[in-house]
Amino acid sequence: MSNLPHHIAIVMDGNGRWATRRFLPRVAGHKKGVDALRACVRHCGDIGVKVLTVFAFSSENWNRPAEEVSGLMELLALALSREVPQLQSEGVRIHFIGERSGLSEKVRNGLAQAEAATAGNSRLVFNICFNYGGRWDIAQAAAGLAARGEAITEQSLDRAMALAHVPDPDLLIRTGGEKRISNFLLWQAAYSELYFTDKLWPEFDAAAIDEAIADYSGRERRFGRTSEQVAAPGGAKKRKAA
Fold this sequence. Notes:
The chain is α/β, with parallel strands linked by helices and 242 residues long. The chain has a single domain (7-231), classed as 3-Layer(aba) Sandwich (Undecaprenyl pyrophosphate synthetase). The chain is 43% helix and 15% strand. The protein has helices spanning 15-20, 26-47, 66-89, 105-117, 134-147, 154-160, 206-217, 227-231, and strands at residues 7-11, 51-58, 92-97, 124-132, 171-174, 193-196. The chain has a six-stranded parallel β-sheet with strand order 3-4-2-1-5-6, sandwiched between helices. The longest helix has 24 residues, at 66-89.
């Protein structure tokens, strides 16, 4: 596929609405969303995407009904036990990004075990943002630098961000019809191409991914430069190493 994005980030929105339209409990939509995510990870690996980052649970999602939050936590535990062995066999390396102190010990252990089990893989880096917020990410990076007595600059902040181990996303997708990024990757998405679709997340299949990539491929990424500069030899922007 031509002009393939190295790093795709996704706000997986619409699980609850998908369920409500079918007169199902909202957690049923989240379960269907796990199926869609499984297919998305596999397709991204198959076509050569190197990094996939998804917004699984925001720091604001704690404000949802207690029953839904509890169901999401149970679904996470189930997904870890069922999905990690398959992801390991497919060469996927898992990183969980977000504040872990507010999670239960059982959940924290599950996240750490999933990361350890896949640490040697390199086919696809799969970042799962869980209990994550973009403002939290910037704040924790700045606090870490201050605690170490380091100067706070764009470069030092970039190195201290929770996704410093991968290049910034080339393409940021949001499903579900909303046209905002909702506190997701505020620092890293500064130059990302944004793609919004009305498809609800459980409906977002391989063909939908390809459609988003095709739209991305038709765009010119200038990073503040002119079209002539981009077209000149060596005009492509250098990225951080994955």
